[in-house]
Amino acid sequence: MEQTLAQAFLEALSALPGVNREQDRFLLALSGGLDSVVLLDLCHQSRLSVGVAHCNFQLRGDASDGDEAFADSLSRRYQIPFYSIRFDTLAQARQTGKSIQETARDLRYEWLERIRREQDYDWILTAHHRQDSIETLFINLSRGTGLSGLTGIPAINGRVLRPLLGFGKGDLETYYRQRHLAHREDDSNAERKYQRNKIRHDILPVFRNINPAFDAAVGRTIDHLQQTQQLVQWALEYWREELVSLGDEEVVTVDLQPVMKKGFAPTLLFEFLRPYGVSRPVACDIWQALQAEHTGKWFQTETSEVLIDRSVLKIRKRGGADHHPFTLSQPGTLHLPEGMLVISGPKQRPANIRSDSMVALMDSRQLTFPLYLRRWKAGDRFQPFGMDGHTKKLKDYFVDEKWSRYQKENAWLLVDATDRICWLVGHRLDHRFRLTEATESIIECIYLSNSPIN
Fold this sequence. Notes:
Blueprint: H1 2-15, E1 25-29, H2 34-45, E2 49-56, H3 62-78, E3 82-86, H4 89-96, H5 100-118, E4 123-125, H6 130-143, E5 156-157, E6 160-161, H7 169-178, H8 195-210, H9 214-243, E7 244-246, E8 252-255, H10 265-273, H11 280-291, E9 298-300, E10 304-309, E11 312-317, E12 326-328, E13 332-335, E14 339-348, E15 359-363, E16 371-374, E17 381-382, E18 392-393, H12 394-400, H13 405-409, E19 413-415, E20 421-424, E21 428-429, E22 441-449
Parallel strand pairs: 1-2, 1-4, 2-3, 4-6
Antiparallel strand pairs: 5-6, 7-8, 8-11, 9-10, 10-11, 12-16, 13-14, 14-22, 15-22, 16-19, 17-18, 19-20, 20-21
């Protein structure tokens, strides 16, 4: 099994899109538990270029400090770089109102991404395996979910890779014993107060007793659902192009007349409205009002207003167009509906600058705080990087780049205090804020997608 798992691991890693195992550098999230210890040893046996990152959430007293010391000792044993950080997780959870587990997860991935970029790693590796994905499916199912919630944990999400998802816990335990490895046991994994642990220890064993091949069967089901989700996303983009349009007054129009009598119309409506903060129950109310042709009826969310005009919906931001919905008076983090924007600096200009559409490096002398993140509006102009300072209407830029209506509608602009566009987030830097030979310090902007992360 040792050799079989090592070879299968390499094949699984190499099969992930964009991964070059001979050239890429990997930052491994090491908790000290059995799974991450096995992943570290697999990487070492495979001669990958790896660094270790450990988060001490300070939730278990001396045991948390012991985990950190163990992770440090492993990195020295394998002679690889070690990075660690301590979080006051309880205080952060109280401040945000999130659960401790959700807070720890957010802190972990935000820090891992920052270390990845600062230390020039290509990927983040986590040790999630097949049972973790099955547990996630059941957690989402217990809360109520759509198709995306039934697809488990993605093998690749942004710069996070999970190459062990095709392997079961038993595979990792066998390798662990054969390699005579050591790990740290987290006693909280046995506590039933956490939903995941209840599912792990009380629910899933019942299914495995009914069907000994339960994990493999659910794994195949997850694979099928992931393929189905890709098909659904393709269909949604098709119908967005057909039915959704964006007017000059930042009013989004959805014309459902061509699909009103199709069985999937209510779900299609919900998918169109979800980016505007519309929940599924409210989408059901809107659908019923549409069928009854309640022209003139309004529905409101925290951010948007939806007006029914026969079979057409008109959507706009509450209170009219708000061009500065998010403000950052100094470097820090903006939490957005779709993800987060991390702005740091001023810092020294890096020796090597890697091309990454989700990162913008700007000359700190050219920026004037506060910075704002807003949607585009009619009349917006900027100087796309690479055009030698020539000005272009943003509307024309969208046309030239063949952006869909949906893409334009969801575009974010980072602007400075004078409302100059600094960055079309995730796409194009403005020429005025580029790095030059005279640049001494920079402001770094990183956009992190809010796709499900486990």
